[in-house]
Amino acid sequence: MNDRGLGGAMLWAVDLDTSDAALTQKLLSYYKACPADDEWPSTQTDTDATINCPFTSNKPTNTQTRHCNSDSTWGPVSNIDCSSFMQQSLAAQQCIG
User: Fold this and answer.
1) CB within 8 Å of 39: residues ≥ 6 apart
2) CA distances from 86 to 14, 20, 48, 56, 83 (A)
3) What is the pLDDT of residues 43-70, one digit of tens each?
């Protein structure tokens, strides 16, 4: 609730909502954002969220991004900077080729 800046309004909406969640959906439509998803924070639509790469990656100090679409859905994670796999693969191709 607070992630969306709605405070107690969401509790009220849930208490009064219909079985198809129409009231809740209407309230959320006024605040266009993607909901928090695991480590990804709630993010305004048409913007990118940026978080650190996982500590288990090759480069935990780098960042990964994810776009919040205009329909409040998350796009795919772009975590190319979290791994050196691509650079190693290219180096291997140069050695082989």
Assistant:
1) 51
2) 47, 46, 23, 17, 7
3) 989 999 999 998 888 888 899 999 999 9
Tokens (6 digits) for 18:
């219909």
The label of the residue with tokens 């607070």 reads: 2
Burial of residue 39 (number of CB atoms within 10 Å: 0-12, 13-18, 19+): exposed
Residues 10 and 4: their CA atoms lie apart, in Å, by 9
Its pTM stands at 0.55
**What distance in Å separates the CA atoms of residue 35 and residue 53, rounded to the nearest whole number?**
20
Give the CA count within 13 Å in the CB-facing half-sphere of 1: 10
**45 neighbors 70 (Cβ within 8 angstroms):** yes
| Contacts of 49 by beta carbon, 8 Å cutoff, 6+ apart | 34, 40, 41, 43, 65, 66, 67, 68
